Amino acid sequence: MAATQTTEKLRLDKYLWAIRVFKTRTQASTACEAGKVKMNGSAVKAARTVSVGDQYEIKNEARRWKIEVTGLLHTRQQYTEAIKYYVDITTEEDQLYNQRVAATFYTGKRISKIGRPTKRERRDLDGFMEGEKEEE
């Protein structure tokens, strides 16, 4: 009987990783320690035991979620399987926030004419500047 109780215990960071909220367990535990994961309005630690029926508020760079645990998932599964272990109960206000953030998400590309020139632009400038020196 003690063996079944130990298999029913599941750490919060492992659960969030298994249901694919975070890409790694390290990211999940870091988010917990930074106060980005809350239960009933208060921050929770990564080692907290997850129970069916718990509700968590999760914030990361791209999204705000509110989920309710419907089952315990110990190993990482495909997304189609993982979504069966929680219910997304995100408020409409947070869903609108998620859409705004997704629309302005930074892709990493440099905006034209802002910041340091690219290698190609530097070569063009060097060629242009060398051409000026020869004329003088």
UniProtKB/TrEMBL annotation:
Gene3D superfamilies: RNA-binding S4 domain. It holds the Pfam family S4. InterPro entries: HSP15, S4_RNA-bd, S4_RNA-bd_sf. It comes from the Bacteria. Residues 10-71 form the RNA-binding S4 domain. Keywords: DNA-binding, RNA-binding. One of its GO terms (biological process) is cellular response to heat. Residues 116-136 are annotated as: Disordered. GO terms for molecular function: DNA binding; ribosomal large subunit binding; single-stranded RNA binding. SMART domains: S4. Residues 127-136 have a biased composition (Acidic residues). PROSITE patterns: S4. Belongs to the HSP15 family. This is RNA-binding S4 domain-containing protein. It comes from Chitinophaga agrisoli.
